[in-house]
């Protein structure tokens, strides 16, 4: 099928906003993933995060989505990553995949999220409850 939407934005995102973009009459399964900011990381309390992206990150995100679509031609993909200052409970990554059957949607969505984390130049700056902070690269 296809990649229907990719973006890097500074505004709130959700899978609910992406679902209508991938919906189609021939799709009986819609799988979504929300990467939500949590209040801890490796046993440390987290107050907030700030995400920054490289100027090529939007193109990298589109490339990742296209690669997943080429491996799973039966799916429709929408994926958005948020940058800027985020607080606990905000969604940093929203991905939605639709297909005729659930197996294809689940597999493609899992691969999509994993590949975004590895291949897209977005970095997070974590601020901890103990006053410390650290940068974490999405490219590992």
UniProtKB/TrEMBL annotation:
Matching Gene3D superfamilies: Molybdopterin biosynthesis MoaE subunit
One of the GO BP terms on file: Mo-molybdopterin cofactor biosynthetic process
Domain of life: Bacteria
Annotated InterPro entries: MoaE_sf, Mopterin_biosynth_MoaE
Cross-referenced PANTHER family: MOLYBDOPTERIN SYNTHASE RELATED
Protein name (database record): Molybdopterin synthase subunit MoaE
Biological source species: Brevibacterium celere
């Amino acid at each position: 099928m296809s990649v229907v939407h990719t973006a890097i934005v500074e505004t709130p995102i959700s899978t609910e906003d992406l679902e209508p973009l991938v919906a189609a009459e021939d799709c009986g399964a819609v799988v979504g993933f929300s990467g939500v900011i949590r209040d801890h990381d490796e046993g440390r309390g987290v107050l907030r995060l700030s995400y920054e992206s490289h100027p090529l990150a939007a193109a990298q995100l589109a490339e990742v989505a296209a690669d997943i679509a080429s491996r799973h031609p039966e799916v429709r993909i929408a994926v958005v990553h948020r940058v800027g200052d985020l607080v606990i409970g905000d969604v940093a990554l929203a991905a939605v995949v639709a297909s005729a059957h659930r197996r294809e949607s689940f597999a493609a969505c899992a691969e999509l999220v994993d590949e975004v984390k590895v291949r897209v130049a977005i970095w997070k700056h974590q601020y901890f409850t103990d006053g410390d902070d650290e940068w974490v690269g999405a490219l590992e």
